[in-house]
Design a protein that fits this description.
Length: about 120
């Protein structure tokens, strides 16, 4: 067998070897919990981005206040935070109509409640 190596052109491609998959297992556990509570992939139907952020903040503040696991699911708050971050990324990428943030328009000193012309 030869010691030569074949060519691979991986420039600009994702380096999945940088991900610690064990660290995202809590996120998968939360997804499994949600699949039982609601249904598989229910979240992909669409969730308002402010609701996602509110949930993320609830889990983040609970974690910062010393609580490790969510009382309802028994799963790590970190897993819930990871899930909500993924949900938010998904909505912004594939369901932009779910973006219901109120944007402050500094130039006009007003709040834009219509979400038109987001920066």
């Amino acid at each position: 067998m030869s010691d030569t190596k074949g060519d691979r052109f991986n420039e600009g491609k994702l380096r999945w070897s940088l991900v610690d998959f064990k660290s995202i297992e809590p996120m998968v556990r939360v997804l499994e919990f949600g699949a039982k509570k609601y249904s598989d992939h229910n979240w992909k139907e669409g969730l308002k981005t402010t609701e996602i952020c509110e949930s993320l903040m609830r889990h983040l503040t609970a974690y910062l206040n010393g609580e490790n696991n969510d009382p309802e699911s028994g799963i790590s708050h970190i897993g819930h935070i990871q899930c909500n971050a993924m949900f938010l990324a998904f909505m912004m990428r594939l369901k932009p109509s779910m973006d219901d943030r109120i944007i402050y328009r500094k130039a006009y000193n007003v709040f834009d409640l219509t979400n038109k012309d987001k920066p």
